[in-house]
Amino acid sequence: MILGKVIGTVWSTKKDENLVGAKFLIVRQLDLDYKPQKNFVVAVDSVGAGVSEVVLVAQGSSARQTTFTKNKPVDAVIMAIVDKLDIAIKDKLEELIES
Amino acid sequence: MHLGKVIGTIWATRKYETLKGYKMQFVQPLNSHLKNLGKPIVAVDTIGAGPGEVIYYVTASEAVIPLDVDMAPVDASIVGIVDSIYSEKTGRK
Lengths: 99, 93
Fold this sequence. Notes:
The complex is a heterodimer. Chain A is built from one helix and six strands. By secondary structure, chain A is mainly beta. The longest helix of chain A has 6 residues, at 93-98. Chain B has a single domain (2-92), classed as CATH 2.40.50.220. Classes of the chains: A mainly beta, B mainly beta. Chains A and B meet through strand 4, strand 5, strand 6 and helix 1 of A and strand 1, strand 2, strand 3 and strand 4 of B. Strand 5 of chain A pairs antiparallel with strand 2 of chain B, so a sheet runs across the interface.
């Protein structure tokens, strides 16, 4: 999964008929300091996320593993809303990996 | 499967229903020399790994198999903790 922030909504009237009722959100990827990265995905919402919330996005065939997205043309789904990150060893990451 | 190191935990109260009770961890992917490989990802923990531990994880739709549910939107899950690694190039680590 990737960490991201919801930055907008996609409205689409003409789409695959399986996708009627889906809520599409634009999610921009964040790094561990919540700093926005360049890439973004359009993801179907499965948890009721809103704009400016920090979320987790599952991508690929795993995105079809919800009751709504099963067997539908979806490759990214929002599956959690993040409350807090606890990065235990960020500062010492390099040296820990060396040891 | 891929090697990685657990570097942190994510707290998420609101998540997809079938994921209740599962812990999510930040994983820094590693190469066979235990050097960083790309950006950290988030993986569901199925075995109880903690920060600092070297683990291996599965990705894509296979990541759902170790969970006790039929369907869950998960694209990475931790399935084992590494005790030691031996490779011809670097020896035992």
